[in-house]
């Protein structure tokens, strides 16, 4: 029996070990298979999950309900009520029309309706105001989406920049390792000095540091993308390498005025400011309505029952059906209210509405001025990026040619280690500058497309 128990314990331990290895295998496979995403996937995830967009959409839904409610204000209301009670003691019975000292069973039912006929067009202007506020909130949702889109594009291109910097840094590390091996062999046979070997080691250390910095920058940009996508930071993602367009084809000779004239009709920030201005304009008209008389019409149907009710002629106690016929009351009437003195409330409301309208007009103009400034700055940035791209491309070609010449001279002993390392450092810097200039130019071109309302893709 003891032997059997030992076998059972060993079998159980073996099962747990196999289970743990299986789980670890699947976990490792999951970690080795990151989710591949391109710019479109990142944008879709960000737009679908962003909390600021959800908040803007909630505000739009609230404004939509306010708009609906203001439209229903034009319709007559309808209210009904039913009550039943038993009363004790001394009281005047309205239905029986007599003073009662005892108990009474009573019931009442009523149906009433009121319609506002005129109030200085206040309701109509409130409807128009709420409609413009709704359109403003819709534009605000688009504004939040646009701002997020631009941020995602910038972050995505920054991640691609850092990825290419990693590739360039790794190439420089590999080159430095090869040079160090050559220096070590030459030093071992006495062809190179310790200073030459130290220079090679220093160059390798510098390039390894550049690789580490590039890797850290890439990891941070990937983390930024995950946060924009609103996904778990532990989720592994891998950027799909896009086929970048020819940079000569992504730029055109735009002027700031051309871009501004097209953007001003479609840009959500301008639409938001325009709709707010329109809303406050109707707010002024609605406030003026408070200075006018208001006219309403209303009607009511009422019936009541009392256990003490009697016929006024025969003094015979009346039953329920008799009272329903006798006590049925119909009322219809007009209600005219004329504002004579309201402690300056309506006049103050009108003045405040006018001030808010003027402030909205100023805000609208500020939005236009700000857009004009941003667009002209974007056009200048694009021109500067074009020039920087051309100059860094030329610098890269020259630095690469210079490095290859210096390396050949170094291999035959016509150049020292300091000259070789200086040439390689210049080549490294030219490589990094060109990569950054390439993606900066692409981003600046996409910014112009963004303001023109063109589709954003790579």
Key traits:
single chain; 458 residues; alpha+beta; Outer membrane efflux proteins (OEP); 2 domains; 4-stranded antiparallel β-sheet; 6 strands; 67% helix; elongated; disordered N terminus; membrane; TolC-like; TolC family protein; transmembrane beta strand; OMP_efflux
Describe the structure.
- α3 packs antiparallel against α4 (122-188) and α4 packs antiparallel against α10.
- The protein folds into two domains: 34-75 and 119-292 and 344-452, Outer membrane efflux proteins (OEP), CATH 1.20.1600; 79-117 and 294-338, no CATH class.
- The protein is 67% helix and 14% strand.
- With 458 residues, it is of the alpha+beta class.
- β2 (77-93) and β3 form a beta hairpin.
- The protein has a four-stranded antiparallel sheet with strand order 2-3-5-6. The protein has a two-stranded parallel ribbon with strand order 1-4.
- The longest helix is centred in the middle third of the chain and has 67 residues, at 122-188.
- Residues 1-7 and 20-31 have low confidence and may be disordered.
**Overall structural domain count:** 2
Secondary-structure class: alpha+beta
Mean of all residue-level pLDDT scores:
85
Number of helices: 10
* Total DSSP E strands: 6
Binned, the helix content reads 55-70%
CATH architecture of the largest domain: Up-down Bundle
CATH topology of the largest domain: Outer membrane efflux proteins (OEP)
Give the strand order, joined by hyphens, for the main sheet.
2-3-5-6
Low-pLDDT runs: 1-7, 20-31
Describe the global form.
Answer: elongated
User: What is the CATH homology-level superfamily of the largest domain?
Assistant: Outer membrane efflux proteins (OEP)
CATH C-level class of the largest domain is Mainly Alpha
The N- to C-terminal Cα distance equals 72 Å
Q: What is the N-to-C order of secondary-structure elements (H for helix, E for strand)?
A: HEHHEEHHEHHEHEHH
Q: Specify the biggest β-sheet.
A: 4 strands, antiparallel
Q: Per DSSP, what share of the residues sits in E-state strands of 2 or more residues?
A: 5-15%
